């Protein structure tokens, strides 16, 4: 962090002394005085040397001042101060200030109130906070998106509208898309699932991932790359693919026994995952010593990831009885899975409430919406957040919201799978390195 304190800026903020012309004049006067004093102590050749030193110091002082002044002019402090003036984000009152020569009252405009901003620069972000002080500027505090973007020449990355302030976050270091096969970015960090260079979460913290997007938006590709990451963490994989497509292929390769495509197979798969969960609960959480612990606190526990592609397709083809069974296992896995190391990764084209109930949807700590979803779809996925979604033009691009990290969805691009990337070969490599991850 370059600094972790907010700096306040308003109409009333004074330019720090060191950037004012008076500070330059002050330094020069001081230099002259010191030189005159030293000059009175020295004679002959030494005086000439002193004069040379004087000019050298003078040039250095002026140069340093010009450089820092230029830096200051580009600083968020100065930009925000100009922004407040240029947009008249202050209130004036005309007041009497004495009398003129004719004895008539003299009036002057005085600034009596100002909009207040705070800013903070971290290693990779610039955060601008617009205060809501319950004055005439409060209503505007959340409407500076385009103005601030133009002011700093940066695209708005995140915005968080709170009761007392609105934060605008600008990225100083751009988020980078991971390219599969480019090992420098695919972090092999123990528990971290890496979505982009910046966006990541710890497996199970928060638990469960929901991936939504229209057909062809890249859901299956994204899940495939997540699977690679899960397997690198030594996870056991259960796959339910009602479309019996790519995912089932991977499932059969990684864990044939636990790859399901028909409704009955899927019901059985979820029952087995659910049984495993109950077994883990009985084993891990029976005495008072286990209070507050999770599976990570016990040695020898592997995460179990259940990937379900196209849940809506499953709902439409299954008989009511099987669907009821599937839903009941799924509900308990979603609600109780976290502590026992069971992670659900679910794909849907639309997060309809009649397919996935709102209370269950809210249990997904990582929510991803790929492609240009409808406003309604985004609202169902992310809840009502006051933000403008930029249009998604990249294949695999979308928005993600991670519990505990984001207050509003942020734009991201799924790891890029190059045409020549051999997924199957990569799976084999992981299996060879980590034979425990698959049966
Ligand atoms: N991350 C990516 N890297 C490279 N290509 C991608 C990526 N994501 C998607 N694509 C391209 O887009 C196509 C569609 O992606 P994908 O099959 O993942 O979509 P989907 O959302 O699962 O669609 P559906 O709902 O029909 O199953 C892929 O065949 C691939 O060519
Ligand atoms: Mg798909």
Fold and architecture overview:
This protein is an alpha/beta fold and 439 residues long. The chain folds into 2 domains: 1-174, no CATH class; 192-437, P-loop containing nucleotide triphosphate hydrolases (Rossmann fold, 3-Layer(aba) Sandwich). The protein is built from 12 helices and 17 strands. It has helices at 21-41, 45-73, 76-86, 145-152, 219-232, 246-255, 263-284, 311-317, 320-336, 358-361, 375-382, 423-433, and strands at residues 7-9, 90-99, 105-114, 117-121, 125-131, 156-161, 165-171, 192-194, 200-202, 209-213, 236-240, 259-260, 304-308, 342-348, 366-370, 397-402, 410-413. Strands 12-11-13-14-10-15-16-17 form an 8-stranded mixed sheet, sandwiched between helices. Strands 1-4-5-7-6 form a 5-stranded antiparallel sheet. Helix 1 (21-41) packs antiparallel against helix 2 (45-73), helix 5 runs parallel beside helix 12 and helix 7 runs parallel beside helix 9 (320-336). It is elongated, with a radius of gyration of 31 Å. Bound molecules: adenosine-5'-triphosphate and magnesium ion. Residues 219-220 line the site of magnesium ion. Residues 213, 215-221, 349, 395-396, 414-417 line the site of adenosine-5'-triphosphate.
